[in-house]
Amino acid sequence: MRVSVILIALLSCLLSSVYAESKSRYGKQNVPADLQQSTLVCSVDQCVYLMTEDAKLKEKLEAMDSRLNQVTYRLKTAETQLGVLKQENKGRTNVVFSASLRSFGNVGPFKTETTLKYSNVFTNVGKGYDSNTGTFTVPVSGVYLFMFYNHALGAKATYLTLTRNGQRVVTTGHHRNTFESSHNGANAITLQLRKGDKMCIRLWAENWVFDDDKNYTTFTGILLFTV
Ligand SMILES: *[C@@H]1O[C@H](CO)[C@@H](O)[C@H](O)[C@H]1NC(C)=O
Q1: Which range (34-43, 128-137, 218-227) has the least confidence?
Q2: Centre of ligand 1 from the C-alpha of residue 127, in Å
Q3: 96-226 in CATH: which number?
Q4: Which Gene3D superfamilies does the UniProt entry name for this protein (predicted)?
Q5: pLDDT band at 178 (very low <50, low <70, confident <90, very high)
Q6: Across the chain, what does the average pLDDT equal?
Q7: Nearest residue by C-alpha to atom 13 in ligand 1
Q8: Residue to substitute in 97, 213, 218, 220 for testing ligand 1 pocket (most ligand atoms within 8 angstroms of CB)
Q9: Please, are residues 109 and 208 in contact by the beta-carbon 8 Å criterion?
Q10: Looking at per-residue confidence, does 36 or 60 come out higher?
Q11: Nearest CA, atom 6, ligand 1
């Protein structure tokens, strides 16, 4: 509103100055008819005031323009970052498995080290775990968390080892102990693995481990993040 009033006033001021100039140039008779009919006039004071106002407005407009440019730039940057995040999330792979031995009694002792087949699968997101072989094949390179818990009767030793491609990584163990009817063991580790790595829990030779429908003895793996 205020701007339009100022614009009208400015216009009238301009017209009156053109009128004055043309009067002196042409003499009153030669002033073009449309200008002669113009009745909008303003004083010099008003003119100066309006011109000052106009300059201020221009300044403000320029400042706003530059701020708008800044905001636009920041918005564009934020949009780009959002796009990157979306892309990362889209490509995000979830890998999780958890299974219990569900053996309904002792497993072992065996003459040689044996891979445990955790047959009762709770979760297998990413399909990395194979309950027929007890092997988790890493479906995507990354950092993984593994946990394995076990229960066993005391009359024999119970040593379980997490292996990577057949190599021992971490072990949980309990000696034969005739004073204890049973015992529990566990271990956990984070590992940076490559796609295709094979992870198993191996029961040492002449050892045993126990499970039934209570799911004491479990093997869990979680992809924390891809690398
Ligand atoms: C063991 O797992 C089975 C199958 O997932 C479930 O039905 C059962 O309730 C679990 N037992 C215990 C004691 O947690």
Answers
A1: 34-43
A2: 21
A3: 2.60.120.40
A4: 2.60.120.40
A5: confident
A6: 87
A7: 214
A8: 213
A9: yes
A10: 60
A11: 213
Q: If you measure from the C-alpha of residue 215 to the centroid of ligand 1, how many angstroms do you get, rounded to a whole number?
A: 6
Q: With a 6 A CB cut-off, is 120 part of the ligand 1 pocket? A: yes
Question: 112 — phi, psi (to 5°)?
Answer: -125, 165
Give 194's pLDDT tier (boundaries 50, 70, 90): very high
32: Cβ contacts below 8 Å, ≥ 6 apart: 22
The pLDDT value recorded for residue 22 is 46
Does the Cβ of 215 fall within 6 Å of ligand 1?
yes
Give the integer Cα–Cα distance in Å for 61 and 209. Answer: 80
Of 115, 100, 126, whose CA–CA distance to 193 is shortest? 126
Q: Distance (Å, rounded) from C-alpha 221 to C-alpha 96?
A: 6
Find out whether the beta carbon of 141 lies less than 6 Å from any atom of ligand 1.
no
Output the pLDDT for position 160: 97
Model confidence pTM above 0.85? no
The residues spanned by each domain of the chain are 96-226
115 CB within 6 A, ligand 1: no
* pLDDT greater than 80 at residue 146: yes
Structural contact between residues 145 and 222, judged by C-beta atoms closer than 8 angstroms: yes
